[in-house]
Amino acid sequence: MMRVRDALAEGNTAVNRTTLKDVADHVGVSAKTVSNVVNGTGWVSPELQERVREALVSLGYRPNAAARQLRSGRSGMVAVALPELSQPYFAELASELVRAAQDRSITVLINQTNGDRDSERRLSDGVGLPVMDGLILSALALNADDLAHRLDTTPLVLLGEHIGQSPFPHVTVDNTLAARAATDHLIARGRKRIAAIGAQVEGPNETSMLRLAGYREALTAAGLPLDDDLVMTVEAFHRSDGASAANRLLDSGVGFDAVFAFNDLLALGAMHALAERGVHVPADVAVIGFDDIDEGRYSTPTLTSVSPDKAAIARIALDLVLEPGPAIETSIPFKIIKRASA
Amino acid sequence: MMRVRDALAEGNTAVNRTTLKDVADHVGVSAKTVSNVVNGTGWVSPELQERVREALVSLGYRPNAAARQLRSGRSGMVAVALPELSQPYFAELASELVRAAQDRSITVLINQTNGDRDSERRLSDGVGLPVMDGLILSALALNADDLAHRLDTTPLVLLGEHIGQSPFPHVTVDNTLAARAATDHLIARGRKRIAAIGAQVEGPNETSMLRLAGYREALTAAGLPLDDDLVMTVEAFHRSDGASAANRLLDSGVGFDAVFAFNDLLALGAMHALAERGVHVPADVAVIGFDDIDEGRYSTPTLTSVSPDKAAIARIALDLVLEPGPAIETSIPFKIIKRASA
DNA sequence: CTTTCGTAGTTCATCGTTGAACGAATGATG
DNA sequence: CATCATTCGTTCAACGATGAACTACGAAAG
Fold first, then answer.
1. B60 close to A (CB below 8 A)
2. Mean pLDDT rounded to a whole number for chain B
């Protein structure tokens, strides 16, 4: 008899795994009949079903996903590619996607691109991935050209950043509208010198530009002047960028009584820097962020933020990727969550 | 020359993905020869290799992972199961695992168990998963019995919580030692009334108990009394639990000048509550956490924390799962990162 | 001159599962 | 009684890639 070690030496990982045929031989029927019992297809008499089911359990049968997928073309898996799991927004989004997928009894494979164009392109081409039923991609660096020359034909849904005239469905909040709402909130609080933290001059910056546009729209609509000295550029959307932007703002000596940060990490970094320099939030400077990450509920002070409906993003993206339709753009609802910072 | 669109138009029943045979026909060789070129096996003349490689690129060939895996038994994928991606510690750990896996050119499939025993058991049995080369499981609710009756034979590595006399390798920090170091740090700062936040009376609580033991060891070694009124239990390790524990501590009227929180989220929640009640950190109460999540570097005040080497956890866990060895327990190094809160 | 060896490929079977197509009973219907 | 539908199950051929075994040919070795 072949021992486990011998099998391992052969390089076979799934050692001794029970197959349909094993179960079939045990019961004395054909493999297909067992397959029918497992999948509820075809006709099998109740008594036989019972016997097969017993054998399935006692032999510990579990279907081989690779074979199943090779045959049927379906994998029951959807890949999700996000820039950075260590960013709370993406981690929370991933969490929602996993949850939504579980509801549909499919498995989510999560990948991390680091916002790297090569990684994103390779993922969208399905390189190095098992064959998937779909791909949900939150791309930062990918461009329309990459998508036009995509090798893979698996359904693709894009999140967040907008990519040119892409022929794929896209799920996102209306960044301009949401940014305008955030700025309006500060204006309604009586703030007149509102700084924006999160402009980006190079790299992937579509989100940044849309939020900046919303910020400017709100100011203009309120009859407030646009002062470029109040617009702080950042390299990335991390806490450290927010902190450095706030410090530059303070160093510059330009007066401001509010900050609209383009995401919560920037806002939290900025609040941290403000606190260190003795500026009180919200007394001296009101701060509003974007994303409504959990952390903002426990910061000091708690962070007011634009809250996109992450569960809806997850749900809709999954539906679109599993049931491919036209390349429509879906706008996700958002709310302003009022907390202590503004 | 046949263009890609023509190939598509031929209507391969499955998907229009290029197979080895397509490439082989195009070049006029056997499928196996193309396979040899792709994998660098066998002997293929340089000129032919060149021609095949051209065809591979022009036809956009990508290997079918399911077929490859069905044949070879290897999938190039490792599953990682974590309780909650929305918890920064796990998100950061996942991020490190993805990075470490990329270095070894393997893919990581991330799952979320919600700390649910059923989910954990099903994962450890490989139910609903593609055949994997290994599983890295951070289990909360799984018990030794579940593991003993594991159906799957995929290499398994456990993270964090210790599970009985498990026959599987285990990677974790020495919780007791680290907790003692954290408490020692507070003692060295001259604190005498040190509260602990994070004791757990029911549910999965091994980590909690070990950290509590370390806390007590440190107090005893320093000749400080053990006061149960200073030990706060929590339901989970979330910010809200930390906040409520801090509030209960304040409400109880028991005096304390320091808090050792069993993780950073508890610490941040506690700091938030303390700030709301006008208690200054670290002037009135010093706070130290555990995990060293990124957020602690930008909280107000910044959070001193026990920092387990997450990159090392990821690296070692991957090595152990890919190169199965004895069921050893690996202790991960940690550091105390001193910031403003203690 | 035969044998061995190295190179450069081929063919074939197979991994585990499932769709398609095909019996073989049983009972109902005209 | 012949015909047809229904039920219950079977066999067969793939899905795409690859290890094992085999062919063919020239060159070197004995």
1. yes
2. 89
Which tokens is B121 given?
Answer: 């058991």
Burial class (CB in 10 A: 0-12, 13-18, 19+), A277: exposed
Instruction: Report helix, strand or coil for B80.
Output: strand
Query: Does this model's pTM top 0.70?
Result: yes
- Amino acid identity, position A101: A
Q: Which amino acid is at A153?
A: T
Please state whether the peptide bond connecting residue A204 to the residue before it is cis, i.e. omega within 30 degrees of 0.
Answer: no
| C-alpha separations of A118 from A124, A175, A200, B77, B269 in Å | 10, 26, 21, 20, 39
Residue A146: strand, helix, or coil: helix
pLDDT at A3 exceeding the cut of 80: no
- State the average pLDDT for chain A: 89
Contacts of A111 in chain B (CB under 8 A): 98, 107-108
Q: Provide CB contacts within 8 A for A328, sequence distance 6+.
A: A169, A170
Kindly report, residue by residue over B196-250, the tens digit of the pLDDT.
999 998 877 889 999 999 999 999 999 999 999 999 999 999 999 999 999 999 9
Instruction: List protein-proximal bases of chain D (any atom < 7 A from a CB).
Output: 7-12, 14-20
Nucleotide minimizing C1' to CA distance for residue A12: C15
Q: Which residues pair with B288 in a beta bridge?
A: B260, B304
Nearest C-alpha in B relative to A72: B14
Evaluate whether B23 touches B37 at the Cβ level (below 8 Å): no
Confidence of residue B8 (pLDDT cuts 50, 70, 90): very low
Flag if A294 and B17 touch (Cβ within 8 Å).
Answer: no
A139-157 residue pLDDT tens: 888 888 888 888 787 889 9
Spacing of C-alpha A162 from chain mean position: 14
Looking at the DSSP bridge assignments, the partners of residue A107 are: A77
Write the residue in A70, A131, A298 that is nearest to B272 by C-beta.
A298
Whether A130 shows a pLDDT value over 80: the answer reads no
For residues A17 and A55, is the Cβ–Cβ distance under 8 A?
A: no
Q: Which residue is nearest to nucleotide D16 (CA to C1')?
A: B67
Question: Which A residues between 30 and 69 have a beta carbon under 7 A from any strand C atom?
Answer: 31-32, 35, 38-39, 41-42, 61, 63-64, 67-68
Per-residue pLDDT at B6 exceeds 70: no
- Contact (Cβ atoms closer than 8 angstroms) between residue B141 and residue B117: yes
Per-residue pLDDT for B126 more than 90?
no
A126 inside 8 A of chain B by CB: yes
